[in-house]
Amino acid sequence: CRAVESDACAPIDPPTDMQLPMNVRRSARRSSCLARVGAVAGATALLLHVARPWFAGRESTANFVGTPNSLRSPLNRRFTAVATATAEVAVASDQITDEEPLHVLVAGAGVGGLALANALGNMPRIKVTVIEKTSAFKRFGGPIQLASNAMMNLKELNRELYDKIEAKATWTGNLTNGIKDGIRSEWYAMFDLKTPAADRGMPFTCVVERPDLQEIMLGELGEGVVRNGAGVESYKLLPGGGVVAMLDDDTEVRGDVLIGADGIWSSTRATMHKNEVRGDGSGATYSGYTVYAGELNYKPTDNGEVGYKVYIGPSQYFVVTDIGKGQYQWYAFLAKPVGTAKSEAPLKPTEEVDGCAAGNPAYLREVFEGWSFEIHDIIRATRDDEVQQRDLYDRPPSLSEPWHEGHVALLGDAIHAMMPNLGQGGCQAMEDAIVISEELEKLSRRSEVPDALAKYKERRLIRSASVQGLSRFASDIIIRGFDTPAKISFDDGVKFENFGY
């Protein structure tokens, strides 16, 4: 699992805002008729088996630390804002040369934006400027899963960059991973992530601390590439080609290309699609799921043997992931209305329950009553200040909505925000970055930019939409279509389990 970019992740890197006035769109109708355990466990295993080749192909922003895009400006400001300062006012010729390179602006210094900046950074006829809202880089955020497809792209992009990331990685793809019975702790299915990667000569799936990943990527960029302190609020296309990015400090930056890597609540996307950054009109929908995420020092009995375990049961599921250095991360996915962090706060116990700390741990102890002792053991080891709750949002595949407009295009969660279940949000953003860099590198004239961005969409649309759909389906099939199966046990006599479903 990965944190979805709120730009991404944790492994679930989901964009969040517990008080957001979004309409809840429940997805029960999509999967209420699914078969129960046999079909679900088999379908889930098949789902990941089918999805695996997608993640092994050649084509390959979790949030950069800071506050969400400002909502203090009215909608029409994005289309009519008048800036007080302008950078790079000189008009370049159509020809792209070493002396007059293609100037690419990247909105957002998350994983996708920094991957793009690194991909473009060694191209002599391209100049890149990353525009980041936060005033400075700060270490914040949990681990992000980098699947084999993302690691392979990094390796081919920049071996030195890859080596630095590898040194910080905890490998999980070479360990046991799979789905367990959330009630009885038995394995339903184990996934072989090692063999497909090894057969293709690809690195194994791993997890890396997001601050480490961002710090490494930032360190590979030249002085002055990242412009901190103001984010892109809107843009305007220039009649003769090029684009002006309007920042939230009332300044402007002019470039030949603008790539919106500013996450699910993207101002670049809002300008392109002519809708709101947040809210009912933004195009993002509440998934119907909230997630509790914990991170702690922990040593289970299978330490060093298992990468991740997904415990599935009726109407909820629980994930435990080894993130290295003696630390583990867990996630409790619950089907809940939006905003329960506030509305259900009075339900959180104020005292310890069965060894679980007051607050979220004690609450989850009650929610997972009767579930595996392995779940209760890690909850019991977690302090309340080590738990965060966030609602999960995503977008439907953008099959009809524009990915690009003239000299502007969208990347990562800005165009294909997805659920974190396959750990592919950041990986797909990296794939976008590689494809954009490949298309822009081919150009000899600035007037060719719109066609290059159209080609980018053509190359990425089906793959990213498929991963989006699989990511949402993984949640729906587990939560909406599953119930723990009946079982006859002959240990210590005949026992009948869960015959009430």
Task: Describe, in plain words, how this protein is organized in 3D.
It is a single chain. This protein is of the alpha/beta class. The protein is 30% helix and 24% strand. It is built from 15 helices and 22 strands. It has helices at 28-31, 37-54, 77-80, 111-121, 148-157, 159-168, 194-199, 210-219, 267-273, 340-343, 360-367, 373-380, 413-416, 425-441, 449-479, and strands spanning 85-87, 102-107, 126-132, 143-146, 170-171, 176-181, 187-191, 206-209, 226-228, 232-237, 243-247, 251-255, 257-260, 285-297, 306-313, 316-324, 327-335, 387-394, 404-405, 408-410, 487-489, 495-497. The chain has a 7-stranded mixed sheet with strand order 7-6-15-16-17-14-18, sandwiched between helices. β19 and β20 form a beta hairpin. α4 packs parallel to α8. It starts with 27 loop residues before the first helix and ends with a strand. Mean pLDDT is 81; it is low at 1-89, 484-489 and 496-501.
Features:
single chain, 501 residues, alpha/beta, 6-stranded mixed sheet, 15 helices, 24% strand, globular, disordered N terminus
How many distinct beta strands? Answer: 22
Note the gap between the termini: 29 Å
Overall structural class, as computed from helix and strand content, comes to alpha/beta
Instruction: Write out the strand line-up for the largest beta sheet, numbering strands in chain order.
Output: 7-6-15-16-17-14-18
Rounded average pLDDT: 81
Q: How large a portion of the residues is in β-strands, by DSSP E? A: 15-25%
Instruction: Show unreliable segments.
Output: 1-89, 484-489, 496-501
Helix content: 25-40%
Largest sheet descriptor: 7 strands, mixed
Rg is: 23 Å
Q: Choose one word for the global shape.
A: globular
